[in-house]
Write a structure and sequence with these properties.
- It is a single chain.
- By secondary structure, the protein is an alpha+beta fold.
- It has one domain.
- It has a two-stranded parallel ribbon with strand order 1-2.
- Helix 2 links the parallel strand 1 and strand 2.
Length: 91
């Protein structure tokens, strides 16, 4: 049950990040079109999980095709480590 909740929360965070990045208007730093649209940070709770590996690879491919840089990090199933990774992305 905990894994399901962690997976659900991870997916919701990614969707929220993606939705936030796609709704920004184009400006000097965000050219839109084929240019670099920005960087999206993705925290995966555990790379060893087969589903999350498939999810990560597909998500990264889709985002890169849309012009985003993608930074994916592995939480190694450690909540404290994942919190630090998220704080680093925010900073």
């Amino acid at each position: 049950m905990k894994k399901f909740i962690a997976l659900l929360l991870s997916a919701m965070m990614v969707m929220a990040l993606f939705a936030g990045c796609t709704s920004e208007p184009a400006d000097e730093g965000n050219k839109g079109g084929d240019g670099d649209k920005g960087t999206i940070g993705v925290c995966i709770y555990k790379f060893d999980d087969a589903f999350m590996t498939t999810y990560r690879n597909n998500l990264q491919t889709i985002l890169e095709e849309k012009g985003y840089k993608v930074s994916v990090v592995d939480g190694n199933n450690d909540q404290n480590k994942q919190n630090e990774q998220i704080d680093t992305f925010i900073t």
